[in-house]
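Bench log. Compound arrived from synthesis this morning; before running ITC I wanted a structural hypothesis for how zinc ion sits in the protein. Inputs:
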Amino acid sequence: KIESVKAREIFDSRGNPTIEVDVQLNDGALGRASVPSGASTGDREVVELRDGGSRLRGKGVLKAVNNVNGPIRKKMIGESPYDQHHIDQLLIELDGTPTKKNLGANAILGVSLAVCRAAALTERMPLYRYLGGVDCELPRPFFNVINGGKHADSGIDIQEFLITPIGFDHFREGLESIDNTYHKLKSILADKALVTSVGDEGGFAPHLGSSEEAIETLIEAITKSGYQPGKDIAIAIDPASSEFYKNGTYHFEGKQLSSEEMIRYYQQLIQKYPIISIEDGLSEHDWESWVPLTKQLGKKVQLIGDDIFVTNPAIFSEGIKKGIANSILIKLNQIGTISETIETIKKARRAGYTTMISHRSGETEDTFIADFAVAMGAGQIKTGAMARTERVSKYNQFLRIEEELGQDTIMTPFPFKENLSHPSL
Ligand code: PGA
Ligand code: ZN
């Protein structure tokens, strides 16, 4: 039974306040969880409750903390921690709004996660097992190695350039290959007298002229590390294009492009480079154009919806009906409870969409998403580069899980192989 619930204000990786929740059970088990925060958020994400005013730039979360320590605590005391769906339903009902704006989705998610962790602890089960992981596979890691957009002042419009170990079966060897590439990239940038300081997600933020230059530099790093681009390591991008979509056009690299021109741009990019995945290629306010985007590129590459679906089962259902995208990014704090997130993942599976679990650009040391990705058999995860402990901690958790599962455990095979050169893939 839940004996106590207590929240506090802590700080995230950008030095902004966020919420941490402790849930204690009557046998003493203490589940602790903290909540991340995005910068390039989707407009239809649930509400992250902030205090406003002048304290901590208006970003304080004391209102959310008080909501946990007051009404939520009252509701949770005495409840069983094992029925996650029931717990989440109580939280949703107590809030009473579709956007979770009364209690704050940050308050709600903190409790949802902490209850789950307490239940796993009292059962003496690893979190990924408690969450249902039986015949486990590890997700393929996507390292965000060059940061642009809202995550860095690199002047590059595409927010994320990622690399993934496409030609490897096992997590550790895959991770080693992209770690080598990340370090090679650093020395290549240094040789070109470009800055090697990192952005919010641990990727470098060099002042490069264009996105193509960023991709070329990545290919150089892959090759010089002894790997074959498109065979061993492939590239993914997250333009986060909602951020540069204004008045119906994409303000991209000094030009104003229509949706058709953006699609053509991506078409050229994937012809030229071993790009296997494009996230938020078009804006969350450009639903109609996602149809031709999906028709034209969806057979060749993974098209992930992040801002457009915001992990929301109802919004995602509309997208499935319209046949847009073929993959969905999963961020727990976009929807606010574990069970709604699982509902979205199940929908994806039924509709044949792939899933990628994701960190946020503002993170904490909490590694919940690592266990969650394994338990869900999510297939893919992006949680930054091999820098900044709030990113590395997630990758380290996968190494522990891999060790526990045994070295035969594989990473889920990547299904979009048409844009890869390796004949055996
Ligand atoms: P965010 O960005 O966490 O700043 O929203 C991540 C993403 O767009 O995938
Ligand atoms: Zn994104």
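What the model suggests: Residues 50 and 61 are 5 Å apart (CA to CA). Residues 171-191 form the longest helix (21 residues).
ITC booked for Thursday regardless.
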